[in-house]
């Protein structure tokens, strides 16, 4: 595996783009483009589950050897074999009558749905709430905030509960999880293709939209935080499109969105007023755009060798749109130089590590992602980015993810690197850890 380094990308600039944008283009072109991008990155699919260890959060980590985790993994393995065999068998159906083909497909889909009841049953209609215990009762109250989480692929009730509990421990706030049902890794990826090409809204998208909208309109709520993982990024992008259509701008100003391993092909966040490209391009020292966006804060966290990130956020975050199949993907992007797709084990444990008690996010130490330095990219590089200050030859994002970096930064002085801020200083989400609140 080649070496890569941490990077931070400003949100895309407000330049004119060629229409139609990705998600408004031809569904067949979108589907073909997604299939091509899928096969370009197909060798990274094992990194949805790899590395298998370590397990810093113990039983909260998805691959920690508890009986509940082992049973979930066993079900996923069975589903993977069955679904792959089913897809391989489909071309052979041309040899049989239509009635036999329909019966075969219906029987398999019904069997698959019954198996997936193991993952999808028992979720309360109002969402799965983080566990309240003696420790959480001692946290500072944040009654004026609403934290909502939408999960990604391959997540059943058990892993969703662990996800919201880990998020709750990280930020010392109650979190409500909206369940994006799983039908096995193969069918989940097929569903991602359909959602990205056809903007197909499943029931969990509609449920999450209603929950976010209610929170925005709820009296006394001053902040709504939406956290998305994996396929939840696709669904969250669609939810944002609906919110931008329906919700007044002053209410959208209390919404913040944070994604991990985002699989979306677009993320809309228009300016609230017409500005020149020059003013839109201006950045503050913390990387915030100076023109006011409809949603003030969007951040994406991506692992460089995560299949989902490479198929999603890393493939669509470019400074300039180059053809009609590309789209706006708004929000700052933080790229962690590692593999893995599981929210707790591969993202939160690496970016928001807990201390020995497992109840507080510890301060970053040398080698942690949040302790790594960042510096501004030069104009001759394609993305507008901040990256870790070493030999960065694999750190830039291209059309397919991680490509080469301009030679201009390889000879930068160490003195320049010493003056730049660390990742924890440009991450707004980091400021929420342990019950903290970012400066407005």
Automatic annotation (TrEMBL):
Keywords: Membrane, Transmembrane, Transmembrane helix. This is DUF676 domain-containing protein. The chain crosses the membrane at residues 35-55, 67-88, 94-119. PANTHER family: DUF676 DOMAIN-CONTAINING PROTEIN, DUF676 DOMAIN-CONTAINING PROTEIN-RELATED. InterPro entries: AB_hydrolase_fold (IPR029058). Coiled coil: none annotated. It comes from Trichoderma longibrachiatum ATCC 18648.
